[in-house]
Design a protein that fits this description.
The complex is a heterodimer of chains A (107) and B (84).
Chain A lengths: L1 H13 L3 E5 L9 H13 L4 E4 L4 H11 L6 E4 L2 E4 L1 H10 L1 H10 L2
Parallel strand pairs in A: 1-2
Antiparallel strand pairs in A: 1-3, 3-4
Chain B lengths: L2 H11 L4 E6 L6 E7 L8 H12 L1 H5 L3 E7 L1 H10 L1
Parallel strand pairs in B: 2-3
Antiparallel strand pairs in B: 1-2
Classes of the chains: A alpha+beta (107), B alpha+beta (84).
């Protein structure tokens, strides 16, 4: 059961270079932190995929174990866990996120 | 949990740290914390935040809904205050 949901998480992470697990959707975020995270990537003007954890309670709990991270949103770039809202904002402000995303775009 | 309890909990897990905690809504579940500790040296932001979350254990899942975190080493903290 757990491995089945982890499998779904792995598939979601592999589905795009940038994947955001969030509350709500890109256009209708249901939480300020999820909204702020989406906004950062929209400002970067890069394509990304979102997964609404509110639509999938099992995944919502499992992603916390999977990433060893207790909160939503969670961002993956090139299959690697980048962090939540605070880290994304901090990396954006320092310019590191732009580099990370550029690296992923050239692959 | 209130801000001072949260602060005490973080300080206990990071001996010698400097910790500031603000309760953002007054409701005891949305906090902002600055944690300055040399235990963060050489660790990524993800690892730093994971250390703080670990220190908070069940409280992070149960009583705290949101915790905005800033994690710095003392060298980074000094740099930041010098620039102000």
């Amino acid at each position: 059961m757990e491995s089945e949901v982890f499998e779904r998480i792995r598939a979601a992470i592999a589905s795009d270079r940038i994947v955001i697990f969030m509350k709500g959707t890109r256009n209708f975020p249901m939480c300020g932190f999820s909204a702020a995270t989406v906004q950062v990537f929209e400002q970067l003007g890069v394509p990304f995929t979102t997964v609404d954890v509110l639509a999938d309670p099992e995944l919502r709990e499992a992603i916390k174990q999977f990433s060893n991270w207790p909160t939503i949103p969670q961002v993956y770039v090139d299959g690697k866990f980048v962090g939540g809202c605070d880290i994304v904002r901090e990396l954006y402000e320092s310019g590191e996120l732009q580099e990370l995303v550029k690296g992923s775009a050239s692959k | 949990m209130d801000a001072s309890q949260l602060r005490a909990r973080i300080e206990a897990a990071f001996p010698g740290s400097y910790v500031e905690v603000r309760d953002l809504t007054g409701g005891g579940d949305h906090f902002e914390a600055l944690v300055v500790s040399d235990q963060f040296e050489g660790r990524s932001l993800v690892e730093r935040h994971q250390l703080v979350y670990q220190a908070l254990g069940d409280a992070m899942r149960e009583s705290i809904h949101a915790l905005t975190l800033k994690t710095l080493t003392f060298a980074q903290y000094k740099n930041r205050t010098d620039r102000r």
